[in-house]
């Protein structure tokens, strides 16, 4: 299957993508991984992306599209893939259609993870990272540390990242509504969108998504 996963920041796309890709035996292709791989391998696209990022500028669509195209052409993606974070806007969605058409392929579904906006704000703004380790993550409401402000695992200080501040989260949501949400209507016109309520436990959301994909494939 060839699937696009969309949803606002904090909807759990990365978590769901990993589970779904494993269940479907297809590669999980995320924009973040594409950038890291191309930059670390020193590819021409990676060098271009790094130059823009080092200058504090957004990476142009054509660079991101090029990376995604290269990855989708790898042998492990011959029978399908799950795209997470791409396409991010209408220009990228149209480019993806062109790439697939050239390869005589098509998308099977676009999974839209639906989460109320205030829940997104609560999920992200409540995160606390361990300053010492940088990997341990807690949440003030959903998974609090035993001692306020202290990591249970290594004793490091817990802090709120700038990206997780409520005002920053709301700005990220504005960008999502402006740039990414229009692709949902674009794919609805192609009868590809399957909306998945993304509240609840991780495995419950995964089961909903798998059931929806099975219905689409039937």
Automatic annotation (TrEMBL):
It catalyses: AMP + ATP = 2 ADP. This is Adenylate kinase. Its EC number is 2.7.4.3. AMP binds at residues 31, 36, 57-59, 85-88, 92, 161, 172. It is found in: Cytoplasm. Keywords: ATP-binding, Cytoplasm, Kinase, Nucleotide biosynthesis, Nucleotide-binding, Transferase. Residues 30-59 are annotated as: NMP. Catalyzes the reversible transfer of the terminal phosphate group between ATP and AMP. Plays an important role in cellular energy homeostasis and in adenine nucleotide metabolism. Monomer. Gene3D superfamilies: P-loop containing nucleotide triphosphate hydrolases (3.40.50.300). One of its GO terms (molecular function) is AMP kinase activity. It comes from Streptomyces ochraceiscleroticus.
């Amino acid at each position: 299957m060839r699937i696009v996963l969309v949803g606002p920041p904090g909807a759990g796309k990365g978590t769901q993508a990993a589970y779904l890709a494993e269940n479907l035996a297809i590669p999980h292709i995320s924009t973040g991984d594409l950038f890291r791989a191309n930059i670390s391998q020193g590819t021409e696209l990676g060098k271009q992306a790094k130059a823009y990022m080092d200058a504090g500028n957004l990476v142009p669509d054509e660079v991101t599209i090029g990376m995604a195209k290269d990855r989708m052409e790898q042998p492990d993606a011959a029978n399908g893939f799950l795209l997470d974070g791409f396409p991010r806007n209408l220009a990228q969605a149209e480019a993806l259609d062109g790439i697939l058409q050239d390869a005589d392929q098509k998308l099977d579904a676009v999974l839209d993870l639906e989460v109320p906006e205030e829940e997104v704000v609560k999920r992200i703004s409540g995160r606390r990272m361990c300053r010492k380790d940088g990997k341990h993550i807690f949440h003030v409401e959903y998974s609090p540390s035993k001692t306020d402000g202290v990591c249970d695992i290594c004793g490091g200080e817990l802090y709120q990242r700038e990206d997780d501040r409520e005002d920053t989260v709301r700005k990220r949501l504005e960008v999502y509504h402006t740039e990414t949400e229009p692709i949902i209507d674009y794919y609805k016109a192609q009868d590809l969108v399957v909306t998945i309520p993304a509240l609840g436990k991780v495995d419950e959301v995964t089961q909903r998504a798998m059931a929806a994909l099975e219905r689409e494939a039937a």
